[in-house]
Amino acid sequence: MEQAPKRAAVVKRRKKRKTGPMVYVLIVVLFLALLAFFYALAAWYYTGRFPNKTTINGVDVSNLTEANAVAALNRQVQEYTLTVVERDGVTEVIRARDIDLAYDDTGDVARLLEQYDPILWVTYYFTEDALTASDDTTYSESKAEQEIADLNCFSPLFVTKVQDACLQKNDQGFYIQAEEQGTELDQEKTIQLLLNALTTHQTEIDLDAEGCYLAPTVLQDDETLNRELEKINGWLQAEITYDFEDGRLEVADNTVIKDWVAQQEDGTYALDYDLVFDWVKTTLAYQYDTFGLTHVVTTHSGETITLTGGDYGWCIDRPTTTEALMEAVEAGTVGELEPAYLYTAQERGVDDIGGTYVEVSIADQTMWCYKDYEVVVETPVVTGNPNKGNGTPSGSVWAFDCHKSPATLGTYVTMGYSSYVNFWMSFTGNVGIHDASWRSSYGGDIYLTNGSHGCVNTPYEAAKKIYETVNVGVAVFVY
Fold this sequence. Notes:
Blueprint: H1 4-18, H2 20-46, E1 54-56, E2 59-60, H3 66-78, E3 81-85, E4 91-95, E5 102-103, H4 108-114, H5 121-125, E6 129-131, E7 137-138, H6 141-149, E8 166-170, E9 173-177, H7 187-199, E10 204-206, H8 223-235, E11 239-243, E12 249-252, H9 254-257, E13 261-263, E14 269-271, H10 273-288, E15 295-298, E16 304-307, E17 315-316, H11 318-330, E18 334-336, E19 341-343, E20 357-361, E21 366-371, E22 374-380, E23 396-399, E24 402-404, E25 407-409, E26 419-421, E27 424-428, E28 431-435, H12 446-450, E29 456-458, H13 460-469, E30 475-478
Parallel strand pairs: 1-6, 3-10, 11-18, 20-30, 28-29
Antiparallel strand pairs: 1-2, 3-4, 5-7, 8-9, 11-12, 13-14, 15-16, 17-19, 20-21, 21-22, 23-30, 24-27, 25-26, 27-28
Helix pairs in contact: 10-11
């Protein structure tokens, strides 16, 4: 009976031992909770930050936020310098601060950061990650250009000119000028090279290695150059004469031709079309064209009058004449050449109207037709009615542009009339000379009340004689 309490004690001791593992479980749970807490804390820390051992374009951005990473990239850019290596070991430097060079973040840093899950920070912690982002930069173009322009290698104090052997012109013609050495830079190429270097972040440019220095490429014994000289001398043998009659001569000889020779982009020489065209325009066309210009004519009464406008006279076809002249020079031609014409007159001399023409006096309501300077027709006429806005055009010299028999003038649909005529000789638009069977009288003041629509109405016999005397191109002047 006395042993029962002892068993109870034993039982109690056994239950006490069973509480030991629970403590360990609690410790482990607590440890794991702390571990999870610190892991979550680290994940929170790395939210919006780059992992450890991470670089972008060689710049350490470990544990940096996007903004700080961009700032680090910008600091790297601020350390940039471009060393310009020149001849004879001379160097010059362009610095980032001199041109306001700065990193241009185009969003690449943010996109790189997005690839990292902060929950997985521990997987990134022990590995190195070398990232590449856009290395775009911005700089002040005006400051960069000024910095380049201020380099000593562009200063005339340090430069001697380079001169290729070339053709030169003097009073006698052309000759070869010998080449000259120098230390001149190809400025356009060099400036572009340096600007490109700044854009692509190169740290050193050797101007000599890059072929920026000019050097003679053509020597005085160059076969092509001597061949060009021979070709030009062949052109200078040409002598082209234009005869405009009445002692009016224009000559294109070596003193003129040498000024037409120009060097082309490929280094060869040719007759410059624009220069030849300008000579044709100013020396030939401006002096001898009469088309639509002022004409001084003598009327039936011997009075001299000045008329302007119209469409009668000579008009040189400048492009065609230029091309023909160039061909003649290139062939070394010596002789006369006729210009090409867009419009021609009856005579080439100072008096380009000649002896066959028609004269119309509105005031006298009379028309005269001349053949070889002799009057073959003198007739009264009826011209356009000025009171109805149909006055016959006057004050100019025109050329007949239509010579037709018979003809029907106008239509009821377009003109409100349709008239049959036996002889039709138009000289400006729809205006011309024709017979008018519907009229019984001519001359006087008829035109003021019963004038034509603008044409010169003419008695049948007179119209017939004029028609037989003139043709297309003959002059008619109205005043």
